[in-house]
TrEMBL record:
Transmembrane segments: 53-77
Record bears the keyword Nucleotide-binding: no
Keywords: Membrane, Transmembrane, Transmembrane helix
Protein name per UniProt: Histone-lysine N-methyltransferase
Compositionally biased tracts (Polar residues): 20-31
Amino acid composition bias (Low complexity), ranges on this chain: 100-110
Organism: Slackia piriformis
Region annotated Disordered, chain positions: 1-42, 92-113, 134-158
Biased composition (Basic and acidic residues): 8-19, 142-158
Top-level division of the source organism's lineage: Bacteria
Amino acid sequence: MAKHAKHARTDDTEAKKSDSAQAKSVPSDASPQKGGEFVASAHHHKASRRMRIVLIVVSVVLVLLMAALGYFAWMLVNEASDAASYQSTVQTEKVDKGESAPASDAGKSAAARKEAPRLADLIGKSENEAIEAIGRGATETSAKDITEETGEGDDKTTEVVGRSVTLALTDETTDAKGNTPSVYLTLDEDGTILEAGYSASVGSLGYGDVSFVDAVTSEHLVENLVDAAGMEIEEGSIEMPAVEDYRTYADDGKTIAQELYTFGGEASGSDGSSYAWSCKLSYDYSAANVSGNLADTIRQVYVYVKAAS
């Protein structure tokens, strides 16, 4: 019995020593480590929430900026359309009411205007004679053969039946858009001029930024050019065509895209000969519709003369 009691006490002592050793083997920082992980996790959640808030704010700002840009783009398009539509309205009213242009839209004084060469006097001359008669620094800038096919099948041949020549009037002022007044000659196979033409911008002729309607009805541009080209024509004899005959619109149906019309007739020259003439007036609003500035309109006029058939 004594031995058994001794063994029991020994076992108790060993158990206590074992428990004490296990207690010592446990790391002293176990509890603080778990607390640190909790704190780090909390900081991570806070940072994630802040990042989400920042992303939301940035997204809202971007949406607002896109909306603002869209609004301003819409305003610019409307302003350009309104500018072009304004001229359409003004010109339409003038056609309907027969009103003249405002003073600010009228061309320059007659003294400042330039005249077309006497084209009628060139008919029947050679190219060299025409260059001498025209003056104004007339210089050939291009020439092209006029050909005609004759025969059938294997017998078909191409013959040169004439030439077309372009002369730049280098002594005359080129307008702001780079258009140089030019003369166009059509010659037969013998080198005799059959038809003569002239082109220039309306502005370079001294008519300023005059509107299409006023160029015809108030400034009498067509009659002035035909008269200067060497043919007799009465001022005021040219009438304004119907709007649908000379005006085309953009896809919106309101903005003027172009105003174009070819006037024509026959008239006597200073030598009593009869001539056929045509005068094309062209107003292209493409650039003006983009910029919203009517001064960007390309205003060109072409006049041609040939012997009446």
